[in-house]
Amino acid sequence: MNSWKKLYCRTFQAALKAVLPFLPYRKPKIVGSVRDIPDILIQKRCSRVLIVTDEGIRKAGLTKRLQKALSDNGIPYSIYDKTVANPTTANVNEAMEMYISGGCNAIIGFGGGSSMDCAKALGVRIARPNSSLAKMKGILKVHKRLPLLIAIPTTAGTGSETTLAAVITDAETRHKYAINDFPLIPRYAVLDPKVTVSLPPFLTAATGMDALTHAIEAYIGRSTTPGTRKDSLLAVKLIFENLDRAYTEGGDMEARRNMMKASFYAGCAFTKSYVGYVHAVAHSLGGEYNVPHGLANSILLPLVLETYGTAVHKKLARLAVETGIAAQDTPAEQAASDFIRAIHEMKKRFQIGDTIPAIREEDIPKLSHYADKEANPLYPVPVLMDAKELEQFYYMLMEK
Ligand SMILES: [Zn+2]
Asked: Which end of the chain is more exposed for a tag (fewer CB within 10 A), N or C?
Protein backbone atom coordinates (compact mmCIF):
# COMPACT_ATOMS: atom_id res chain seq x y z
CA MET A 1 0.00 0.00 0.00
CA ASN A 2 1.34 3.45 -0.81
CA SER A 3 2.29 5.85 1.97
CA TRP A 4 -0.58 8.28 1.39
CA LYS A 5 -3.21 5.59 1.68
CA LYS A 6 -1.44 4.20 4.74
CA LEU A 7 -1.50 7.60 6.38
CA TYR A 8 -5.18 7.99 5.53
CA CYS A 9 -6.05 4.55 6.99
CA ARG A 10 -4.09 5.06 10.19
CA THR A 11 -5.53 8.57 10.73
CA PHE A 12 -9.06 7.28 10.18
CA GLN A 13 -8.47 4.41 12.64
CA ALA A 14 -6.87 6.69 15.25
CA ALA A 15 -9.89 9.01 15.11
CA LEU A 16 -12.26 6.08 15.63
CA LYS A 17 -10.16 4.84 18.52
CA ALA A 18 -10.19 8.28 20.13
CA VAL A 19 -14.00 8.41 20.24
CA LEU A 20 -14.34 4.77 21.38
CA PRO A 21 -14.56 5.56 25.14
CA PHE A 22 -17.44 8.00 24.51
CA LEU A 23 -19.67 5.61 22.57
CA PRO A 24 -22.57 3.88 24.33
CA TYR A 25 -21.34 0.28 23.99
CA ARG A 26 -22.86 -2.16 26.45
CA LYS A 27 -22.64 -5.89 26.99
CA PRO A 28 -25.83 -7.95 27.00
CA LYS A 29 -26.58 -9.51 30.38
CA ILE A 30 -25.73 -13.22 30.35
CA VAL A 31 -28.48 -15.69 31.21
CA GLY A 32 -27.60 -19.39 31.65
CA SER A 33 -30.79 -21.14 30.53
CA VAL A 34 -33.90 -20.57 28.42
CA ARG A 35 -35.85 -21.44 31.59
CA ASP A 36 -34.82 -18.08 33.07
CA ILE A 37 -36.56 -16.12 30.31
CA PRO A 38 -40.09 -16.05 31.83
CA ASP A 39 -38.74 -14.28 34.95
CA ILE A 40 -37.10 -11.61 32.79
CA LEU A 41 -40.28 -11.06 30.78
CA ILE A 42 -42.39 -10.80 33.94
CA GLN A 43 -39.90 -8.44 35.54
CA LYS A 44 -39.90 -6.23 32.41
CA ARG A 45 -43.72 -6.36 32.27
CA CYS A 46 -43.72 -7.97 28.84
CA SER A 47 -47.01 -9.78 28.42
CA ARG A 48 -46.55 -11.37 24.99
CA VAL A 49 -43.48 -12.31 23.00
CA LEU A 50 -42.56 -13.06 19.39
CA ILE A 51 -39.90 -15.74 18.83
CA VAL A 52 -37.96 -15.15 15.58
CA THR A 53 -36.28 -18.28 14.25
CA ASP A 54 -35.92 -20.47 11.14
CA GLU A 55 -37.64 -23.63 10.02
CA GLY A 56 -34.65 -25.93 10.61
CA ILE A 57 -34.32 -24.91 14.23
CA ARG A 58 -38.02 -25.26 14.89
CA LYS A 59 -38.21 -28.67 13.17
CA ALA A 60 -35.22 -29.88 15.18
CA GLY A 61 -37.31 -29.15 18.27
CA LEU A 62 -34.80 -26.66 19.69
CA THR A 63 -37.47 -24.12 20.63
CA LYS A 64 -39.53 -26.63 22.63
CA ARG A 65 -37.91 -26.02 26.03
CA LEU A 66 -38.46 -22.29 25.63
CA GLN A 67 -42.09 -22.79 24.53
CA LYS A 68 -42.71 -25.00 27.56
CA ALA A 69 -41.12 -22.50 29.94
CA LEU A 70 -43.32 -19.72 28.52
CA SER A 71 -46.51 -21.84 28.66
CA ASP A 72 -45.76 -23.01 32.21
CA ASN A 73 -45.58 -19.37 33.26
CA GLY A 74 -48.72 -18.35 31.37
CA ILE A 75 -46.85 -16.13 28.89
CA PRO A 76 -48.46 -16.18 25.43
CA TYR A 77 -46.12 -16.24 22.42
CA SER A 78 -46.08 -16.39 18.62
CA ILE A 79 -43.35 -17.95 16.50
CA TYR A 80 -42.06 -16.57 13.21
CA ASP A 81 -40.03 -19.40 11.66
CA LYS A 82 -39.62 -18.32 8.03
CA THR A 83 -36.25 -16.58 8.39
CA VAL A 84 -33.98 -17.49 5.46
CA ALA A 85 -30.16 -17.76 5.37
CA ASN A 86 -29.69 -14.15 4.28
CA PRO A 87 -32.75 -12.59 5.94
CA THR A 88 -34.76 -10.29 3.68
CA THR A 89 -36.94 -7.24 4.15
CA ALA A 90 -39.89 -9.56 3.38
CA ASN A 91 -38.94 -11.71 6.40
CA VAL A 92 -38.84 -8.65 8.61
CA ASN A 93 -42.19 -7.35 7.33
CA GLU A 94 -43.88 -10.73 7.88
CA ALA A 95 -42.45 -10.92 11.39
CA MET A 96 -43.67 -7.38 12.02
CA GLU A 97 -47.22 -8.30 11.01
CA MET A 98 -47.14 -11.19 13.49
CA TYR A 99 -45.69 -8.96 16.19
CA ILE A 100 -48.40 -6.33 15.76
CA SER A 101 -51.38 -8.64 15.24
CA GLY A 102 -50.27 -10.71 18.25
CA GLY A 103 -49.99 -7.61 20.45
CA CYS A 104 -46.39 -8.53 21.32
CA ASN A 105 -44.06 -6.32 23.34
CA ALA A 106 -40.84 -8.33 23.38
CA ILE A 107 -38.69 -10.16 20.78
CA ILE A 108 -36.63 -13.32 21.18
CA GLY A 109 -34.07 -14.02 18.41
CA PHE A 110 -33.50 -17.78 18.42
CA GLY A 111 -30.86 -19.23 16.08
CA GLY A 112 -27.66 -18.38 14.26
CA GLY A 113 -26.69 -15.06 12.77
CA SER A 114 -29.67 -14.94 10.38
CA SER A 115 -32.43 -15.24 12.99
CA MET A 116 -30.58 -12.74 15.14
CA ASP A 117 -30.31 -10.25 12.27
CA CYS A 118 -33.99 -10.68 11.48
CA ALA A 119 -34.94 -10.16 15.14
CA LYS A 120 -32.80 -7.03 15.38
CA ALA A 121 -34.24 -5.61 12.16
CA LEU A 122 -37.75 -6.33 13.43
CA GLY A 123 -36.86 -4.35 16.56
CA VAL A 124 -35.78 -1.46 14.34
CA ARG A 125 -39.08 -1.56 12.39
CA ILE A 126 -41.06 -1.49 15.66
CA ALA A 127 -38.97 1.36 17.06
CA ARG A 128 -39.16 3.38 13.82
CA PRO A 129 -42.45 2.29 12.22
CA ASN A 130 -42.50 5.19 9.76
CA SER A 131 -39.06 4.61 8.27
CA SER A 132 -38.14 1.85 5.87
CA LEU A 133 -35.22 -0.43 6.74
CA ALA A 134 -33.29 0.92 3.76
CA LYS A 135 -33.36 4.35 5.42
CA MET A 136 -31.69 2.87 8.50
CA LYS A 137 -28.79 1.53 6.42
CA GLY A 138 -25.34 2.59 7.62
CA ILE A 139 -24.33 3.74 11.07
CA LEU A 140 -26.21 5.44 13.89
CA LYS A 141 -29.48 6.00 12.01
CA VAL A 142 -31.83 4.23 14.44
CA HIS A 143 -31.16 6.09 17.72
CA LYS A 144 -34.37 4.95 19.33
CA ARG A 145 -34.86 2.27 21.94
CA LEU A 146 -35.96 -1.13 20.60
CA PRO A 147 -38.52 -3.35 22.35
CA LEU A 148 -36.95 -5.82 24.81
CA LEU A 149 -34.67 -8.02 22.67
CA ILE A 150 -33.38 -11.36 24.00
CA ALA A 151 -30.86 -13.36 21.94
CA ILE A 152 -30.59 -17.14 22.11
CA PRO A 153 -27.64 -18.23 19.92
CA THR A 154 -27.74 -21.84 18.70
CA THR A 155 -24.13 -21.93 17.50
CA ALA A 156 -21.01 -20.93 19.41
CA GLY A 157 -19.39 -18.73 16.85
CA THR A 158 -21.00 -15.69 15.25
CA GLY A 159 -21.16 -13.66 18.44
CA SER A 160 -24.10 -11.76 16.92
CA GLU A 161 -25.82 -11.87 20.32
CA THR A 162 -23.32 -9.16 21.32
CA THR A 163 -23.13 -6.97 18.22
CA LEU A 164 -24.85 -3.78 17.10
CA ALA A 165 -25.25 -4.88 13.48
CA ALA A 166 -28.03 -6.48 11.44
CA VAL A 167 -27.39 -7.48 7.83
CA ILE A 168 -30.52 -7.47 5.68
CA THR A 169 -31.12 -8.20 1.99
CA ASP A 170 -33.72 -6.19 0.08
CA ALA A 171 -36.31 -8.73 -1.11
CA GLU A 172 -36.73 -7.02 -4.49
CA THR A 173 -33.36 -5.58 -5.45
CA ARG A 174 -31.30 -8.30 -3.61
CA HIS A 175 -29.16 -5.44 -2.32
CA LYS A 176 -27.51 -6.49 0.97
CA TYR A 177 -26.83 -3.84 3.59
CA ALA A 178 -26.01 -3.47 7.27
CA ILE A 179 -27.82 -1.45 9.90
CA ASN A 180 -25.46 -0.51 12.73
CA ASP A 181 -26.56 1.26 15.89
CA PHE A 182 -26.21 0.78 19.63
CA PRO A 183 -29.90 0.08 20.38
CA LEU A 184 -29.55 -3.12 18.28
CA ILE A 185 -27.32 -4.74 20.93
CA PRO A 186 -29.60 -7.33 22.60
CA ARG A 187 -30.44 -6.69 26.27
CA TYR A 188 -29.92 -10.33 27.23
CA ALA A 189 -27.88 -13.19 25.74
CA VAL A 190 -29.01 -16.66 26.76
CA LEU A 191 -25.95 -18.93 26.74
CA ASP A 192 -27.73 -22.26 27.10
CA PRO A 193 -25.52 -25.19 26.00
CA LYS A 194 -28.54 -27.46 25.52
CA VAL A 195 -29.52 -25.64 22.33
CA THR A 196 -26.11 -26.35 20.77
CA VAL A 197 -25.72 -30.08 21.60
CA SER A 198 -27.25 -31.24 18.33
CA LEU A 199 -24.84 -29.14 16.24
CA PRO A 200 -22.86 -31.64 14.09
CA PRO A 201 -19.06 -31.86 14.61
CA PHE A 202 -18.12 -30.05 11.40
CA LEU A 203 -20.33 -27.03 12.21
CA THR A 204 -19.13 -27.05 15.81
CA ALA A 205 -15.55 -26.81 14.54
CA ALA A 206 -16.18 -24.19 11.84
CA THR A 207 -18.26 -21.89 14.07
CA GLY A 208 -15.79 -22.35 16.94
CA MET A 209 -12.92 -21.32 14.69
CA ASP A 210 -14.94 -18.30 13.57
CA ALA A 211 -15.08 -17.26 17.25
CA LEU A 212 -11.32 -17.90 17.51
CA THR A 213 -10.78 -15.62 14.51
CA HIS A 214 -12.91 -12.86 16.11
CA ALA A 215 -10.87 -13.04 19.29
CA ILE A 216 -7.46 -13.11 17.56
CA GLU A 217 -8.22 -10.41 14.96
CA ALA A 218 -9.61 -8.12 17.67
CA TYR A 219 -6.56 -8.79 19.89
CA ILE A 220 -3.84 -8.14 17.31
CA GLY A 221 -5.52 -5.03 15.90
CA ARG A 222 -4.49 -1.52 16.86
CA SER A 223 -7.76 -0.36 18.44
CA THR A 224 -7.86 -2.55 21.50
CA THR A 225 -8.78 -1.42 25.01
CA PRO A 226 -7.84 -3.16 28.27
CA GLY A 227 -11.39 -4.56 28.28
CA THR A 228 -11.32 -5.99 24.76
CA ARG A 229 -7.84 -7.45 25.31
CA LYS A 230 -9.15 -9.22 28.43
CA ASP A 231 -12.21 -10.52 26.58
CA SER A 232 -10.06 -11.76 23.66
CA LEU A 233 -7.58 -13.55 25.92
CA LEU A 234 -10.38 -15.26 27.80
CA ALA A 235 -12.07 -16.34 24.56
CA VAL A 236 -8.87 -17.73 23.01
CA LYS A 237 -8.07 -19.67 26.19
CA LEU A 238 -11.59 -21.11 26.41
CA ILE A 239 -11.52 -22.17 22.74
CA PHE A 240 -8.17 -23.96 23.04
CA GLU A 241 -9.42 -25.72 26.18
CA ASN A 242 -12.88 -26.71 24.97
CA LEU A 243 -13.33 -26.78 21.19
CA ASP A 244 -11.74 -30.22 20.72
CA ARG A 245 -13.99 -31.70 23.39
CA ALA A 246 -17.12 -30.05 21.96
CA TYR A 247 -16.10 -31.47 18.55
CA THR A 248 -15.45 -35.06 19.63
CA GLU A 249 -17.97 -35.23 22.52
CA GLY A 250 -20.94 -33.22 21.28
CA GLY A 251 -22.89 -33.96 24.47
CA ASP A 252 -20.22 -32.55 26.80
CA MET A 253 -22.25 -29.76 28.41
CA GLU A 254 -19.29 -28.13 30.10
CA ALA A 255 -17.36 -27.85 26.83
CA ARG A 256 -20.49 -26.57 25.05
CA ARG A 257 -21.13 -23.97 27.76
CA ASN A 258 -17.52 -22.79 27.66
CA MET A 259 -17.65 -22.48 23.87
CA MET A 260 -20.76 -20.29 24.17
CA LYS A 261 -18.92 -18.09 26.65
CA ALA A 262 -15.92 -17.93 24.33
CA SER A 263 -18.10 -16.90 21.41
CA PHE A 264 -19.81 -14.24 23.56
CA TYR A 265 -16.54 -12.69 24.79
CA ALA A 266 -14.97 -12.85 21.33
CA GLY A 267 -18.10 -11.03 20.09
CA CYS A 268 -17.73 -8.33 22.75
CA ALA A 269 -14.07 -7.89 21.75
CA PHE A 270 -14.59 -7.51 18.01
CA THR A 271 -17.68 -5.30 18.39
CA LYS A 272 -15.38 -2.62 19.82
CA SER A 273 -12.00 -3.54 18.33
CA TYR A 274 -13.01 -4.83 14.88
CA VAL A 275 -11.79 -7.80 12.88
CA GLY A 276 -9.13 -7.84 10.12
CA TYR A 277 -8.13 -9.20 6.72
CA VAL A 278 -9.13 -12.79 7.54
CA HIS A 279 -12.72 -11.63 7.73
CA ALA A 280 -12.50 -9.28 4.76
CA VAL A 281 -11.20 -12.06 2.49
CA ALA A 282 -13.61 -14.64 3.96
CA HIS A 283 -16.60 -12.33 3.32
CA SER A 284 -15.61 -11.91 -0.33
CA LEU A 285 -15.48 -15.72 -0.73
CA GLY A 286 -18.83 -16.13 1.05
CA GLY A 287 -20.46 -13.57 -1.24
CA GLU A 288 -19.08 -15.00 -4.48
CA TYR A 289 -19.05 -18.76 -3.92
CA ASN A 290 -21.13 -19.25 -0.75
CA VAL A 291 -18.08 -20.60 1.09
CA PRO A 292 -19.23 -21.05 4.71
CA HIS A 293 -17.89 -18.18 6.81
CA GLY A 294 -16.29 -20.27 9.57
CA LEU A 295 -14.64 -22.58 7.06
CA ALA A 296 -13.07 -19.72 5.08
CA ASN A 297 -11.88 -18.10 8.31
CA SER A 298 -10.22 -21.23 9.66
CA ILE A 299 -8.27 -21.80 6.44
CA LEU A 300 -7.24 -18.16 6.16
CA LEU A 301 -6.39 -17.46 9.80
CA PRO A 302 -2.94 -19.10 10.00
CA LEU A 303 -1.99 -17.81 6.51
CA VAL A 304 -2.83 -14.19 7.33
CA LEU A 305 -1.11 -14.37 10.73
CA GLU A 306 2.01 -15.74 9.07
CA THR A 307 1.99 -12.90 6.53
CA TYR A 308 1.72 -10.19 9.22
CA GLY A 309 5.18 -11.34 10.35
CA THR A 310 7.11 -9.57 13.10
CA ALA A 311 4.34 -6.99 13.68
CA VAL A 312 2.29 -9.61 15.53
CA HIS A 313 4.98 -11.71 17.19
CA LYS A 314 4.67 -10.15 20.64
CA LYS A 315 0.89 -10.37 20.73
CA LEU A 316 0.76 -13.92 19.38
CA ALA A 317 3.44 -14.88 21.91
CA ARG A 318 1.17 -13.61 24.68
CA LEU A 319 -1.68 -15.76 23.30
CA ALA A 320 0.70 -18.74 23.12
CA VAL A 321 1.65 -18.34 26.78
CA GLU A 322 -1.97 -17.82 27.82
CA THR A 323 -3.02 -21.07 26.11
CA GLY A 324 -0.05 -23.05 27.42
CA ILE A 325 1.42 -23.50 23.93
CA ALA A 326 4.66 -21.68 24.85
CA ALA A 327 6.47 -20.97 28.12
CA GLN A 328 6.87 -17.46 29.59
CA ASP A 329 10.53 -17.34 28.59
CA THR A 330 10.12 -18.63 25.02
CA PRO A 331 11.43 -15.95 22.59
CA ALA A 332 8.48 -14.06 21.00
CA GLU A 333 9.24 -15.15 17.44
CA GLN A 334 9.36 -18.82 18.44
CA ALA A 335 6.21 -18.57 20.60
CA ALA A 336 4.31 -16.83 17.77
CA SER A 337 5.25 -19.51 15.27
CA ASP A 338 4.26 -22.23 17.79
CA PHE A 339 0.87 -20.51 18.16
CA ILE A 340 0.29 -20.38 14.39
CA ARG A 341 1.29 -24.03 14.12
CA ALA A 342 -1.20 -24.90 16.87
CA ILE A 343 -3.98 -23.31 14.81
CA HIS A 344 -2.86 -25.33 11.77
CA GLU A 345 -2.94 -28.53 13.80
CA MET A 346 -6.32 -27.71 15.32
CA LYS A 347 -7.76 -27.18 11.85
CA LYS A 348 -6.28 -30.50 10.72
CA ARG A 349 -7.89 -32.35 13.64
CA PHE A 350 -11.23 -30.95 12.46
CA GLN A 351 -10.64 -32.31 8.91
CA ILE A 352 -10.45 -28.78 7.50
CA GLY A 353 -8.14 -28.61 4.49
CA ASP A 354 -5.88 -25.86 3.18
CA THR A 355 -7.62 -24.89 -0.04
CA ILE A 356 -10.90 -23.51 -1.35
CA PRO A 357 -11.35 -25.22 -4.74
CA ALA A 358 -14.18 -22.89 -5.82
CA ILE A 359 -11.78 -19.97 -6.41
CA ARG A 360 -11.31 -19.05 -10.09
CA GLU A 361 -8.17 -17.16 -10.96
CA GLU A 362 -10.02 -14.63 -13.12
CA ASP A 363 -12.19 -13.62 -10.11
CA ILE A 364 -9.24 -12.80 -7.87
CA PRO A 365 -8.82 -9.08 -8.72
CA LYS A 366 -12.53 -8.45 -8.11
CA LEU A 367 -12.63 -10.45 -4.84
CA SER A 368 -9.49 -8.76 -3.62
CA HIS A 369 -11.01 -5.38 -4.44
CA TYR A 370 -14.08 -6.25 -2.30
CA ALA A 371 -11.83 -7.29 0.60
CA ASP A 372 -9.82 -4.07 0.28
CA LYS A 373 -13.02 -1.99 0.28
CA GLU A 374 -14.37 -3.76 3.35
CA ALA A 375 -11.19 -3.59 5.41
CA ASN A 376 -9.54 -0.31 4.46
CA PRO A 377 -9.60 2.11 6.19
CA LEU A 378 -11.99 0.66 8.82
CA TYR A 379 -10.11 -2.35 10.22
CA PRO A 380 -7.14 -1.39 12.42
CA VAL A 381 -5.02 -4.30 11.15
CA PRO A 382 -1.42 -4.74 12.34
CA VAL A 383 -0.02 -4.50 8.77
CA LEU A 384 -1.85 -2.60 6.03
CA MET A 385 -2.31 -4.25 2.63
CA ASP A 386 -4.01 -2.93 -0.51
CA ALA A 387 -6.05 -4.93 -3.04
CA LYS A 388 -2.95 -6.00 -4.98
CA GLU A 389 -1.26 -7.28 -1.81
CA LEU A 390 -4.42 -9.06 -0.64
CA GLU A 391 -4.49 -11.09 -3.87
CA GLN A 392 -1.79 -13.37 -2.44
CA PHE A 393 -4.27 -14.94 -0.04
CA TYR A 394 -6.60 -16.07 -2.85
CA TYR A 395 -3.64 -17.63 -4.66
CA MET A 396 -2.62 -19.42 -1.45
CA LEU A 397 -6.12 -20.92 -1.24
CA MET A 398 -6.20 -22.18 -4.82
CA GLU A 399 -5.60 -25.86 -5.45
CA LYS A 400 -2.02 -26.48 -6.43
ZN1 LIG B 1 -16.82 -14.07 11.82
From this structure: C
Q: What is the pLDDT of residue 176?
A: 84
Contact 109, 95 (CB under 8 A): no
The HSE-up count of residue 373 (CA atoms within 13 Å, CB side) is 8
d(CA 303, CA 8): 26
**In angstroms, what is the C-alpha Rg of the chain?**
21
% pLDDT > 90, the chain: 94
CA 213 to chain centre: 10
Cα 278 to middle of ligand 1, angstroms: 9
For residue 297, how far is its CA from the centre of ligand 1 (angstroms)?
Answer: 7
The mean predicted confidence, pLDDT, of the chain is: 96
Record the pTM. Answer: 0.95
The pLDDT tens digits for 100-157 are: 999 999 999 999 999 999 999 999 999 999 999 999 998 899 999 999 999 999 999 9
Q: Position 254: which residue type?
A: E
How many CA atoms within 13 Å lie on the side-chain side of 21? 5
